């Protein structure tokens, strides 16, 4: 049971990172990134392939973050003239291309066979039998750092500008600030987080293949942000945790509900999550969390 | 200071919003644009601000041809505007709406956030003092922390003016600033504009409230059907027969 809990929490941590990245890009920035899973996959592959080539895992992770950030920035540049809905299509197409390239360019990525034997960071540091706990600690540490960074950003003048471009890019331009500049930076920072999450994915499973990455990752991330409340990092953390625990925990229903098989349950679980989301959107369309304000502004007005 | 020469704008679908209009906003003066609905006043403002690209004609800012520069470029050179239909940043608080307009914020650069926290903080405090002064002037400071989307129509207009003034602009284009604003506040806007003009700010004003136009404008252009019908001092222009028929014609 403990092992199961540790495994689930690790999955939660990685999902939370993906959710936080989307919350920056879409929640705060209004940039619909349907291609989330492609950037995540790229992060996993960069980290995985470099590690099996003998690069130290932390270096591989850093390269994954920088690589995905750079590619994200480029994809934001391509979509400069596109409105929100077209950006969704472009990013989705971009991610599918990435997935196809990774699936079929076997000389580079080992194709459908996948990459095996990926080494985790600090794996010799933990005593025998504590490898998973050790890795969980690393993953939670990553979440902590990313959360603190994003909260800092959200409360900074930069965060305010990002939210302004979401509300009305035309106004931001009339104020003499480049919207494209903001968007590229938002995509880059979000991309770095996705690269980090993907890298951790590769380290955790020590084996990656293209079937592990699909649009469902994007769907879960959007769910986490919608439930958590757009713009609220805390909300994303709570909802990612809740979502994964509901999905994972409901596996045990098989033991308690008579006549329920594993395959029916798999379908029912997704069905329940879907219904839950619809109900939530009817009764609490803004989600549970609240978006942070820029610090000084909030402080001064509270002491009116 | 800011001028449009013979500009034409044809919207998608073939509607001609401007057909060779020329206006000139003299430095340190308030220039009014009046005319019936659909005359092209707001489109002309869009052209002056860089949000609308003219099919023909030229825009000059402080003597320099700026036709091919967008709104960002022009705003950085001191051109601020408000919109006919308020475009508040709805989910930002009232004070954030004003703060976000402050130019050259180091806190909007990622590197400075990491390396120059103190400078970012000081800059933010200076911005806040200024935003407070502006908002107090129009009695919005009491709502500083409210989401801007929850303000009334008139309050949004006032907020937009504060936001534009946060840029320390040399030129301000105000598109119907009095629409939906109650009369006591309108005189507040008038005082606001007069005080800034004393300091040398140039204004462009699209307005249907003729009392306000009379009180503020040094020079008035009358637009109808995408052209400048006539121009001059308000009192001379308003008695013009063509002007009367343009307005009445639009009402009939």
Instruction: Determine the strand fraction of chain B and express it as a percent band.
Output: 15-25%
> What Rg of chain B, in angstroms, do the CA atoms define?
19 Å
Report low-confidence residues of chain B grouped into runs of 5 or more: none
Number of alpha- plus pi-helical segments of chain B: 10
Average of pLDDT of chain A: 89
Separation, N- and C-terminal Cα atoms of chain B: 37 Å
Let me know the average pLDDT of chain B: 90
Tell me the greatest interface: A-B, 34 and 43 residues
- The CATH superfamily of the largest domain in chain B is identified as P-loop containing nucleotide triphosphate hydrolases
Topology-level CATH name of the largest domain in chain B: Rossmann fold
Report the β-strand fraction of chain A as a percent range: under 5%
Rg of chain A to the nearest angstrom? 20 Å
Shape estimate of chain A: globular
Structure, described:
The complex is a heterodimer of chains A (304) and B (252). Chain A is mainly alpha-helical and 304 residues long. Helices cover 74% and strands 0% of the residues of chain A. Chain A has 14 helices and no strands. In chain A, helix 2 packs parallel to helix 4. Chain A is globular. The mean pLDDT of chain A is 89. With 252 residues, chain B is α/β, with parallel strands linked by helices. Helix content of chain B is 40%, strand content 23%. In chain B, strand 9 and strand 10 form a beta hairpin. The radius of gyration of chain B is 19 Å and the shape is globular. The model of chain B has no long low-confidence stretch (mean pLDDT 90). Classes of the chains: A mainly alpha (304), B alpha/beta (252).
């Amino acid at each position: 049971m403990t092992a199961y809990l540790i495994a689930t929490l690790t999955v939660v941590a990685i999902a939370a990172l993906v959710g936080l990245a989307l919350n920056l890009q879409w929640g705060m920035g209004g940039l619909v990134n349907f291609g989330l899973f492609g950037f995540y996959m790229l992060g996993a592959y960069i980290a995985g392939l470099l590690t099996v080539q003998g690069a130290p895992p932390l270096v591989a992770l850093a390269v994954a973050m920088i690589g995905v950030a750079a590619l994200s920035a480029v994809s934001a540049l391509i979509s400069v003239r596109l409105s929100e809905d077209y950006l969704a299509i472009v990013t989705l197409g971009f991610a599918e291309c990435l997935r196809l390239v990774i699936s079929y360019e076997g000389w580079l990525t080992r194709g459908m066979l996948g990459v095996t034997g990926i080494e985790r960071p600090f794996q010799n540091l933990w005593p025998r039998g504590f490898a998973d706990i050790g890795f969980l600690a690393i993953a939670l540490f990553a979440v902590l750092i990313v959360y603190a960074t994003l909260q800092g950003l959200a409360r900074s003048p930069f965060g305010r500008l990002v939210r302004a471009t979401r509300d009305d890019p035309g106004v931001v331009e009339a104020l003499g600030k480049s919207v494209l500049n903001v968007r590229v930076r938002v995509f880059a920072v979000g991309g770095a987080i996705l690269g980090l999450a993907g890298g951790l994915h590769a380290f955790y499973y020590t084996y990656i293949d293209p079937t592990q990455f699909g649009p469902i990752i994007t769907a879960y991330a959007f769910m986490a942000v919608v439930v958590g409340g757009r713009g609220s990092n805390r909300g994303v953390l709570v909802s990612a945790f809740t979502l994964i625990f509901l999905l994972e925990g409901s596996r045990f229903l098989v033991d308690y509900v008579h006549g329920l098989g594993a395959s029916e349950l798999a379908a029912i679980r997704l069905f329940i999550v879907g219904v839950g989301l619809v109900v939530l959107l009817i009764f609490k369309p803004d989600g549970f969390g609240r978006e942070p304000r820029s610090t000084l502004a909030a402080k001064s007005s509270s002491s009116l | 200071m800011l001028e449009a020469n013979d500009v034409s704008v044809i919207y998608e679908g073939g509607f001609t919003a401007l057909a060779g209009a020329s206006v000139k906003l003299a430095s340190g003066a308030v220039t009014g644009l009046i005319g019936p609905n659909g005359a092209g006043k707001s489109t002309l403002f869009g052209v002056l601000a860089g949000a609308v690209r003219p099919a023909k004609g030229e825009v000059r800012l402080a003597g320099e041809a700026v036709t091919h520069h967008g709104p960002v470029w022009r705003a950085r050179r001191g051109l601020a505007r408000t919109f006919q239909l308020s475009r508040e940043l709805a989910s930002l608080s009232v004070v954030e709406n004003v703060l976000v307009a402050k130019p050259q914020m180091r806190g909007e650069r990622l590197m400075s956030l990491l390396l120059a926290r103190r400078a970012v903080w000081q800059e933010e405090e200076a911005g806040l003092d200024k935003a407070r002064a502006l908002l107090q002037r129009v009695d919005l400071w009491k709502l500083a922390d409210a989401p801007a989307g929850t303000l009334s129509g008139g309050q949004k207009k006032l907020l937009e003016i504060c936001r534009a003034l946060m840029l320390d602009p040399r030129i301000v284009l105000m598109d119907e600033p009095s629409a939906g604003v109650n009369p006591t506040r309108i005189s507040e806007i008038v005082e606001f504009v007069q005080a800034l003009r004393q300091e040398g700010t140039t204004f462009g004003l699209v307005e249907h409230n003729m009392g306000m136009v009379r009180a503020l404008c040094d020079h008035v252009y009358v637009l109808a059907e995408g052209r400048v019908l006539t121009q001059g001092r308000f009192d001379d222009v308003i008695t013009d027969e063509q002007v009367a028929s343009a307005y009445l014609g639009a009402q009939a």
